[in-house]
Amino acid sequence: STAVQRMSGDDFAEPDAPEQLGAVEEWLRRCSDAQHREEPIPRQLFRRLIRHERFLCSPYSWSDNVDGDVYLDGVAGAPEELSLMNGLQLAHAIPADLQRLRIHFDKTSPPLALDASDVEALQTFLKVTVVEALLERLFQGQELEVSEPFAMLRSFEHFYILCDGGQGQLDGEEAAAKSPLRLALAPDPEHGRALAAAFTAQDALQLFVMACNHTRGSDGLVSVRLSGLELFDRLRTQDGLDGVVFNPAGPGTPIALAKSVADAVLDC
Length: 268
Prior knowledge:
Blueprint: H1 24-36, H2 44-51, E1 55-57, E2 67-72, E3 83-85, H3 87-93, E4 100-104, E5 112-115, H4 116-140, H5 149-155, E6 159-164, E7 169-170, H6 172-177, E8 185-186, E9 195-199, H7 202-215, E10 221-226, H8 228-237, E11 243-246, E12 255-258, H9 261-267
Parallel strand pairs: 2-4, 7-10, 9-11
Antiparallel strand pairs: 1-2, 1-3, 4-5, 6-9, 6-10, 8-9, 11-12
């Protein structure tokens, strides 16, 4: 079996985890306020949008435009001819070259305007959702129900790890050049297992770093972005590991897998 006992994330869960913040309208209002203060939009927004069930839009009419408009279902003033979509469908339907996406959430407030990099981040979270579902099904020992699931995990380009080596952020190519970097461990006080901490998205990484700052500090840790191929290869080759735990501080429930999962992913 590739599964090991689930690691509790209760000690690390932040009160601002996306699923605990409530209505998407409040998320959009907070992000709009941050945008007006010229602050970056939190990555957690895109996870929350992917999970939302009721958008009104017509993305297939955007192909000749550089921008598009999306409305929350029920917002006054939305055009009548729009289609109902959930967040997954919306992210999948957005044209790759869309430069701006306006999300209308309140008739009395200006829409939240996502630029091209934000739109790309939203589309990335579509892939994140698929990868997290695959990892969860691996943990549960269930059928993966997609074609070539391990190839999907190997090709995913947005895993993150933490390593000792100073502050900053590296991509996989830079990290490989600075090898060997050892994967930092997630705390496992109850069982004492050596579980590498890995993350499926930046918001999960940020939650863990905040938790570390509250408890033990994160000085000397560097975040590294890896492909799935690079991540599972490092997991397989690093001595002393019992396994890996994905998103140990959330959002959602941590997913702990035995080290043998690396063989399953790399050899299939």
